[in-house]
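4.2 Preliminary Data

To establish feasibility before requesting continued support, the project team ran the inverse folding procedure on a target of 161 residues. The structure was first converted into the token representation described in Section 3, and no sequence information of any kind was made available to the design step. The complete token record follows.
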């Protein structure tokens, strides 16, 4: 693994993470009904920092291995979907509309996990916490959408960025 590759993958993670800063949860999210198993707010930045470091490591390891085409495609898909979910859920407040995105994200992370394992044990293991976290996030998104059916989505022109 070259250090430059790691920083390239980390930059992609940073790009996805910027959406979290651009579209923070805010007061409207705090007021939503949430299940009792919702992680405390401090857990989210800790988990995402850890996940981004791990998947940058995984991507950098896999990127130099022969036969990595599918793994790199899944890596790219998951980071794009990762970046897309936050503006839909937090920015547009489309709780149900974010479900297909996070469902596709889960599939992309599963695909990345499997294909990275096929190339390298450590790269595959690095994706496991992400798969667990996205599973929790999907369940949380679904439950919050069900518990808050009357949330009014915003139009793009109403987003305060």
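Position-by-position output of the design step:
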């Amino acid at each position: 693994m070259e250090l430059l590759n790691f920083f390239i993958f980390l930059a992609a993670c940073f790009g996805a993470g910027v959406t979290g800063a651009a579209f923070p949860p805010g007061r409207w999210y705090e007021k939503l009904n949430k299940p009792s198993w919702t992680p405390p707010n401090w857990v989210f930045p800790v988990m995402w920092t850890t996940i981004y470091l791990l998947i940058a490591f995984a991507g950098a390891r896999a990127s130099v291995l022969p036969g990595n085409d599918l793994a790199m495609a899944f890596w790219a898909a998951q980071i794009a979907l990762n970046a897309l979910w936050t503006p839909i859920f937090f920015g547009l407040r489309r709780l149900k509309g974010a479900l297909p995105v996070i469902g596709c994200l889960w599939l992309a992370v599963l695909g990345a996990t499997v294909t990275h394992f096929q190339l390298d044990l450590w790269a595959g293991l690095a994706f496991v916490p992400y798969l667990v976290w996205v599973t929790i996030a999907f369940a949380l998104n679904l439950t919050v959408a069900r518990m808050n059916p009357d949330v009014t989505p915003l139009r793009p022109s109403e987003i305060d960025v």
